[in-house]
């Protein structure tokens, strides 16, 4: 474990997702403890995307932005909103120069799959049709997210490919949750890792899937064909249950002819980039921004 990160482990709240309402409150409190981002170089606006039901988004528009990212927050499918994601969405916009459209998708278990994916797809379609209004290029729309949100982004790319939806230029997937089966070495063995462990992942998938069987749009690792998907940047944490499924997905994308940049961060755990004082966290956030900046600029 990176020593700068290890020192903070006792301060992380224990969360098992057995009580989603209470965990949402704790998650929101944790988000308020993060130092506020600098938004002086961008416009920040709350919008509502017409859908059934409508979807709340927060748009971060840096000066002279070129491309955009549909950004999906983490939280195990059951926690988070545009407010808890504010520190990270703003930092991503500042680091990348891209318009960040942070999506307040519906949460499980009240709204199991496919509610969150439907919300994300509605925002993708809206962004493609309102590119001029957003000050971006419709040919430079990307998708991305962290953890559960990154899994949603991967599912969104699959759905857009299959339904011939809006063109997606790039996938920015940070520690994505991709496989409900939890059969990899890391998923089976990381039972007591910080913040995210096997039991918590199991609970997240149970809430998200409800009584429905998993499909590739819910759990992208189940997709049989990964060809024709957008290029991807995938980052993993060494002590994260998702680690091996993410690496396997990156390899499968490569074998399907999809360009991939894969970064495995040693000494880190799931979500540890939130510890902003750690040097490795600063590098992780900077690299996410740089990867997105390259994707929308090329």
Automatic annotation (TrEMBL):
<feature type="domain" description="Alpha/beta hydrolase fold-3">
    <location>
        <begin position="69"/>
        <end position="272"/>
    </location>
</feature>
<dbReference type="InterPro" id="IPR013094">
    <property type="entry name" value="AB_hydrolase_3"/>
</dbReference>
<dbReference type="InterPro" id="IPR050300">
    <property type="entry name" value="GDXG_lipolytic_enzyme"/>
</dbReference>
<dbReference type="Pfam" id="PF07859">
    <property type="entry name" value="Abhydrolase_3"/>
</dbReference>
<keyword id="KW-0378">Hydrolase</keyword>
<dbReference type="GO" id="GO:0016787">
    <property type="term" value="F:hydrolase activity"/>
</dbReference>
<dbReference type="InterPro" id="IPR029058">
    <property type="entry name" value="AB_hydrolase_fold"/>
</dbReference>
<protein>
    <submittedName>
        <fullName>Alpha/beta hydrolase</fullName>
    </submittedName>
</protein>
């Amino acid at each position: 474990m990176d020593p700068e990160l290890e020192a903070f482990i006792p301060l992380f709240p224990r969360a098992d997702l057995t009580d989603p309402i209470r965990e949402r409150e704790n998650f929101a409190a944790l988000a308020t403890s993060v130092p506020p981002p600098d938004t002086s170089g961008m416009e920040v606006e709350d919008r509502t995307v017409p859908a059934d039901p409508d979807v709340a988004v927060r748009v971060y528009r840096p000066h002279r932005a070129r491309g955009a990212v549909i950004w999906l927050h983490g939280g195990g499918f059951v926690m988070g909103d545009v407010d808890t994601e504010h520190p990270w969405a703003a930092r991503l916009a500042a680091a990348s120069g891209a318009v960040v459209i942070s999506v307040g998708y519906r949460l499980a278990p009240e709204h199991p799959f496919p509610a969150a994916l439907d919300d994300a797809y509605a925002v993708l379609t809206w962004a493609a049709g309102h590119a001029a209004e957003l000050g971006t290029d419709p040919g430079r729309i990307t998708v991305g997210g962290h953890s559960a949100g990154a899994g949603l982004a991967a599912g969104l790319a699959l759905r857009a490919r299959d339904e011939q939806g809006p063109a997606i230029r790039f996938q920015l997937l940070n520690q994505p949750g991709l496989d409900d089966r939890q059969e990899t070495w890391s998923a089976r063995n990381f039972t007591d890792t910080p913040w995210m462990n096997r039991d918590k992942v199991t609970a997240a998938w149970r809430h998200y899937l409800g009584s429905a069987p998993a499909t590739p749009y819910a759990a992208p690792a189940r997709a049989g064909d990964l060809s024709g998907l957008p290029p991807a940047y995938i980052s993993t944490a060494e002590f994260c249950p998702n680690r091996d499924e993410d690496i396997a997905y990156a390899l499968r994308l490569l074998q399907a002819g999809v360009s991939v940049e894969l970064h495995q961060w040693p000494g880190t755990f799931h979500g540890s980039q939130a510890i902003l004082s750690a040097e490795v966290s600063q590098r992780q956030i900077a690299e996410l921004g740089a990867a997105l900046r390259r994707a929308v600029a090329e």
